[in-house]
Amino acid sequence: MDQLEQNPASLPPQAAERSIVIPIFGFLNFVVGGYPLINVYPRLFKAMADVLKNGSTKITSPEILFLGLSCLVGIAFSIWLVALGIGLLRMKKWARRGSVIYAWIAIGLFVIVWGYSIIVKGLIIKLGYRDFLLLVTSRALFGLVYPILLLIFMQTKRIKRIFAAIGG
């Protein structure tokens, strides 16, 4: 039995084993969280402002409110994910735990939104937008891949052992 498995917390950070998974997911957290902050949310807020300014009849006030709240929640999650990415790159224990929590919340929100979309799906099909439904479904499933991979890799025994050895 090697020294790390006997008592990983007693080893100094320099003696801890390394894994390429940690910096990769640190970088991916940074990119996945930062991209919407730079590109997506500014465009959504501009579109909402244009709709409110021009008084479009295609979008109702509750839809604008829902979109605005969704954007604010998305911004909070994006900032959180960027912070977790920086924490993983700096090998902080809280970043691994936060990444696991983020992944569970993202999966849970996916299930809730998916349930809501099943209700809306019937309406979309009635309106004849099957291609749109396929696009939204494929995009949503792709969006679920990252939280699942993050959850799987951050929960492996080796990654847990590395962060236990670092202790911080």
Structural commentary:
With 168 residues, this protein is mainly α. It has one domain (20-166). The chain is 82% helix and 0% strand. It is built from 6 helices and no strands. The chain has helices at 3-6, 21-54, 61-89, 93-127, 130-154, 157-166. The longest helix is centred in the middle third of the chain and has 35 residues, at 93-127. The protein is elongated. It starts with a helix and ends with a helix. Residues 11-16 have low confidence and may be disordered.
Tally of separate domains:
1
* Alpha-beta classification: mainly alpha
Largest sheet: none
Coarse morphology:
elongated
Helix content: over 70%
The N- and C-terminal alpha carbons lie at a distance of 24 Å
Radius of gyration: 20 Å
According to DSSP, the number of beta strands is: 0
Indicate the mean pLDDT.
77
Tell me which oligomeric state these chains represent: single chain
Order of helices and strands: HHHHHH
What count of helical segments does DSSP give? 6
Question: Could you tell me the strand content as a percent range?
Answer: under 5%
